[in-house]
Task: structure prediction
Amino acid sequence: RGSSGPTASRTSSVGRGKRVIIDAGHGGRDKGAMWGGVRESDLNMRVANKLEYLLKRNGYSTTMTRRSDVFISLSRRAAIANQYRNAIFVSIHFNATRETWVRGAETFYAGSRGRSLAATIQQELVKDLKLRNRGVRMARFTVLMQTKCPAVLVECGFISNSSERRRCATSSYQSTAAQAIADGIMRYRWH
Result:
């Protein structure tokens, strides 16, 4: 990134007065997808921690729905988000399917206010991670439907695809994913 990027300075106030609820998907007894020894809930937590660091550095307030490998119900995750005003909700996941050739990133939203947030995050993910663009899609996921603020669920790549899984499991990929999500959040126009 050049010096003109949104993360150029050590700390910035771009996010002052704004809160991001960071939801590391799955956890505890719910491990999410498991492929080739890679556990989705672990990857989600790693990206969430990196994202929190980047957002705080840019002046955002953050709330994590979980900080360790614990189970938290979907309704509880939404309830945590609903405690705050001027907030957005970002749920972090990695994808899997029986069709192991499938790869790429996609971002889901439920309400119209989540759509523009999903679009800015998806754009950055695809550009920064050089992933196939699976697009922005509406979905009736509990964490999106029950959350009052703009909410998205980000799928950072397919761990069921062997080449994508190898990338997803690296710290550099996780850092780039977190940076892309942060950049998407910073580009989002808060209402």
Q: What stands out?
A: Residues 32 and 46 are 14 Å apart (CA to CA). The chain is about 40% helix and 20% strand. Residues 1-9 have pLDDT under 50 and may be disordered. The longest helix spans residues 40-57.
